[in-house]
């Protein structure tokens, strides 16, 4: 299927951001593991894997539209030197992703690409859930204090 005007470019911008956050979250997860925050490590690593699945969906969709995924670009990976910095850096990335995807929804509506629009709308829901989780963590830190919060991150939740 041939892509509508500007859709491949838009999807490649989203792919760049997805590839960037995969790396950012992966490193943040590994840093948390190194610090002994097993619970936080597990959650953030899962988010990294979730972003990999999103990147895969974007790649598949670009190929479906007879485009070429640009795997060579990577945005700035912002590394937090402590947990609150990591959460804030991740929150910034998530908000930027929602903004980019929302612009994509508007563009896809304008050019009549409703399949891509629907895919982006579903992805926005995921990103908004991530935003909610991060904002909850930051609020919890504010309410209970960093030391209390981090002490709860030492052991992974039992499943």
Automatic annotation (TrEMBL):
PROSITE patterns linked to this entry: FERRITIN_LIKE
Catalytic activity: 4 Fe(2+) + O2 + 4 H(+) = 4 Fe(3+) + 2 H2O
EC number: 1.16.3.1
Domain Ferritin-like diiron: 1-145
First-level EC class: oxidoreductase
Any one GO molecular function term: ferroxidase activity
UniProt keyword terms in alphabetical order: Heme, Iron, Iron storage, Metal-binding, Oxidoreductase
Annotated NCBIfam families: bfr
Listed name of the protein: Bacterioferritin
Species of the source: Candidatus Nitronereus thalassa
